[in-house]
Amino acid sequence: MQGSKRKNHQGAVAYHAGLAAEQSVAQDYQRRGHAIVGHRWRGKGGEIDLIAKDGDGLIFVEVKKSKSFEQAALRISLAQMKRIYRSAAEYLGRQPLGALTESRFDVALVNSHGETQIIENAFGHG
């Protein structure tokens, strides 16, 4: 493959692998009794991979896929966490209780075997 075609192919493969990882994580949350109310929700500040319902509250989920759980976890940057917080604040602003809506931020790590590790409240309190 030529350079640009190879890069486009690799990008497409990564995009579809990311979609598959998000779908797998969504199914995991659904098995735990959480309805998925947002998938790749995009606000002015950025995108949130998944939003799940937790009783009256919400769970904002960032999905990271890599060869290992450790490598996936290392792909989360402070700047990215700030974008997710801003997007979540925008989403919460559309809820009946606004910022008073109970919420948490989880990170779902997916390794090359398709195994999932969910870290609840991974960002602590914003």
Explained architecture:
- The chain is of the alpha+beta class.
- The chain contains 3 helices and 5 strands.
- It has helices at residues 3-31, 69-74, 78-92, and strands spanning 36-43, 46-54, 57-65, 103-110, 116-119.
- Strands 1-2-3-4-5 form a 5-stranded mixed β-sheet.
- Strand 2 and strand 3 form a beta hairpin.
- It is globular and about 55 Å long.
- The termini are far apart.
Q: Please tell me the overall pLDDT.
A: 90
Q: Which band does the percent of strand residues land in?
A: 25-35%
Mind telling me the CATH class? Alpha Beta
Shape-level CATH architecture: 3-Layer(aba) Sandwich
* Order of H and E elements: HEEEHHEE
Rg of Cα set: 15 Å
- N→C terminal distance: 45 Å
Question: Uncertain regions: pLDDT < 50 for 5+ in a row?
Answer: none
Helix content: 25-40%
Work out the helix count: 3
In total, the number of domains comes to 1
Protein name: UPF0102 protein DSW25_12725
Family: Belongs to the UPF0102 family.
Organism: Sulfitobacter donghicola DSW-25 = KCTC 12864 = JCM 14565
GO molecular function: nucleic acid binding
Note the main attributes of this structure.
126 residues; 3 helices; five-stranded mixed sheet; single chain; Trna Endonuclease, Chain: A, domain 1; alpha+beta
